[in-house]
Amino acid sequence: MESLLRVEDLNVRYKSYRGELKVLDDVSFEVKVREKVGLIGESGCGKTTLLKSILRILPPNSIIYKGKIFFKNIEIIKANKNEIFKIRRENIGMIFQDPMSALNPFFKVKDQLYDALRYSVHNIKSQQDLQQMIIKLLKEVALSDSERILESYPFELSGGMRQRVCIALALTRSNDLLLADEPTTNLDVTIQEQILNLLRELVNKRGLSIVLVSHALGMVKEFVDKIYVMYAGQIVETASTDKIFSEPLHPYTKLLLSAVPRLTGRWKAEGLIGRLPDYVNPPPGCRFYMRCQQSNSNCKIKPKLLKLNKDHSVACWLYGDEEH
Amino acid sequence: MKSLIISNETIKFLLKRGGSIIFTLIGLSILIFILARILPGDPARMAAGWTAPDWVIEEMRRKLGLDQPLHIQYIRWLSDVLKGDLGFSIYTKRSVTVDVLQYLPKTLELIFVAELFSITGGILLGILAGAFPYRLPDNVVRVMSYIAISMPAFVWAIILQLMFARIIPLFPAGGQLSSHIVPPPRITGSIFIDSIISGRFDALIDCLWHTILPALSLSFGSMMQNARILRMGMTDIKGKDYMVLSDALGLPLRLKIYKYQFRPASIPAITAMGMSIGADLGNAFLVENVYNWPGFSRYGVTAMLNKDLNAIVAVVLVVGIVYAIANFIVDLIILSLDPRIRRMSRSV
To answer: Residue B147, Cβ neighbours under 10 Å: how many?
Structure first.
């Protein structure tokens, strides 16, 4: 399969009063055409930063220190404003974590959808065109009462409805790739499943690629083909979904999987001891070193993401140590 | 516009606001009525003159109604006010109503032009600074606002008068009309309106010409204050999730700033603008003095210095009414801008 998005050795830092927060550290990442990729890891490990750097919508205190991002042969970091705007309007759509705050409370849903469509790739000739397109779009995200929803302000809608509107907004953009940043985290459990099913349906129907960031590992498992595991701004392991769940290699992946409470069998979950390292002075080697129970003296040197076989790579000294 | 259709909630909101304004004004009138009477100094003596014998002072006291208990005095005064009679001024020896009608329009003209400057300037500078925080325009606006806010309006009045009336004589140094212009016939007391009604455009232009310097000096402080508050709102909104979303959607910069960022950011700034109208009415006194402007603030200060009770109460009441009207307008604007208040009838 052809590569759609390729991130190479991306380093993103944030300026702060304590010094530079070295968040993303040599992150490499790939999404192929029509591929569903999952990105997992605990909160604060740089997943959102990675997604935002793809669209170049990082906050102003951020620095892209090093690295390349290729989207269909366009180098996003070096691209000029027009190219970036073209990608934002035509190729990549993003869904945000909190549908409660992602819509502007001062404008009707109608206004926000109109503006999104007006500046998109869609060829709109008349007001009727626009109207029809919006109704079709709302139908696609399973919002049936379109008349009422268009005339509503975001705060008059439920969380699930808002997230559907956000998905509709993203759909006006994503002709190639959908970036979903924990799209279900802030929703009711009953709605989470619905939203995820909707996303799967849309991605399949439209033939999109998707990057799904989520904490809900059970849901990720059923959704994606490939998983990247991130810890403290580094990709520690990547493999096909089956491999990650059946034979996780990196100690962090193992711990992360065992931290999920299960309803069947051994239901008591093991929490992870300790917390993320300080990003101002991260450990020079493996960033998981301090919390790892299998660490040894090698771990003070940074391990490379090592390809063990066709679809399984891991960055850990426990595997293939002579090749690092 | 659909958003202006008046719903039940809107009417309820307006009635509530209107009611609270009336209560505020009644409270204000009681407060200032009592305050003016318990301040040291005997108004009857000042009215009768320093050399008057005691029996003349007693006569004057009875004539002014000052021998009655306070609540009787207040009720009498209030019923007169409701009839449009603000009492007799012991200083100008005229009806206070006549004085107010003569001086107030002149100051309102000045305030109107000053607020025009302060609101348009505040909005422009605020957007400029807020859309590009910590860059050149923002830094320039910040330094300007420190200077403008820390210097009182009369200093600006003197500086501008020196610069643009004396060193570079572009504008007249004072007064409201040049001596060679015949004033328009008095209809409302406002030279602006009177000259428009009577078609005297020479007088209108001359009057505007005279207004620019005092209005500018009066507006500097509040203009920069407005700019600062709008700038703060803009940067606040810039970090919101919905602004990141409009970035992600690739919406054009103009649409993003003027529509999605400006409207939410304008709410605190508009509130501040309403407050600054009242504050400028107070600040106007020294500016009116510097520019020899025959206005209301000067009248008010003269009244206070001469313990002219009815005039003091009238001045404070008028300032209170101007405040109340300004804030009511602000509430209306915010109501039309913020759907959360409109649709959920939450108080501001």
So the answer is: 12
CB A45 within 8 A of CB A230: yes
Q: Alpha-carbon distance B279 to A52, whole Å?
A: 45
ipTM: 0.90
The count of residues in chain A is 324
Residue pair A229/A40 in contact (Cβ under 8 Å)? The answer is: yes
N- to C-terminal Cα distance for chain A? 28
Q: Could you tell me which of B217, B339, B338 has the C-alpha nearest to residue B285?
A: B217
| Residue type present at position A172 | T
* Three-state secondary structure call for residue B50: coil
Rounded to 10 deg, the angle between the B153-161 and B201-238 helix axes is 130
Q: How many folded domains does chain A comprise?
A: 1
B251 touches chain A (CB under 8 A): yes
Strands A306-309 and A312-314 come out as antiparallel
The verdict on residue A178 lying in a domain is yes
Q: Look up the domain containing B284 and give its range.
A: 100-296
Interface check for A177 against chain B (CB to CB < 8 A): the answer is: no
Reported as a single tens digit per residue, the pLDDT across A203-245 is 999 999 999 998 778 888 889 999 999 999 999 999 999 999 9
- Chain B positions touching A52 (Cβ under 8 A) are 244
pLDDT band, residue B2 (cuts 50/70/90):
very low
- Domain contains A305: no
Q: What is the DSSP letter of B164?
A: I
Same domain, B161 and B240: yes
B338 in reach of chain A (CB within 8 A)? yes
Tell which residue, B314, B305, B245, has the closest CA to residue B103: B314
d(CA B81, CA B152): 34
